[in-house]
Amino acid sequence: MKKNIPGIVLLIALLIPVIAGAQQAGADQQWLVGMGQVSPDFDFTWKGEKQDNISNHRGKVVLINFFATWCPPCRAELPRVQEEIWKKYGDRSDFALFVFGREENWDVLDPFIENTGYTFPILPDLERGIFSKFATQSIPRNVILDREGKIIYQSIGYTEAEFNKMLELLDREINK
Questions:
Q1: Degrees, nearest 5: CA angle 156-162-167
Q2: How far apart are CA 36 and CA 157, in angstroms?
Q3: 152 close to 35: Cβ distance less than 8 angstroms
Q4: Could you tell me whether strands 141-145 and 151-156 are parallel, antiparallel, or unpaired per DSSP bridges?
Q5: Which of 2, 5, 64, 122 could be 143's S-S partner, Cβ–Cβ 3.0 to 4.6 Å?
Q6: Percent with pLDDT over 90 in the chain
């Protein structure tokens, strides 16, 4: 056994950079766009088939949320979006909020909106056309764009602490 110890130590020494590199690559793949980059361009459709584009909202602070109606962390986060973001900033002309239902269309979103009473914009992203410009997996996700359309905040999942951090950043950015 003592003869194998140098070989085991060498193997571990060789594997540490490989494992660390794989972990870093995994972290890099959490987002397909980075902080400071301009948001990818995308179109979306309002109820009634009205077309819109994210670039039409330059000059505003924009919060983009990706969720699914079946997702427990998403369902924990959305009441706070309603109460602490939409009620506070929803009537401001320099703010926009877009909540996209990943892989969900109006047939799922309409009953969800009716049952929850949410008044903020919830829109379909049926084939992940928008989501796939930002990430490949994991919801909820939040992205904040500054008035020039640059990404200034990103989060994955929901925790009270991270949501509070997002609220602070939104308040600072909107009240600049």
A1: 110
A2: 21
A3: yes
A4: antiparallel
A5: 64
A6: 76
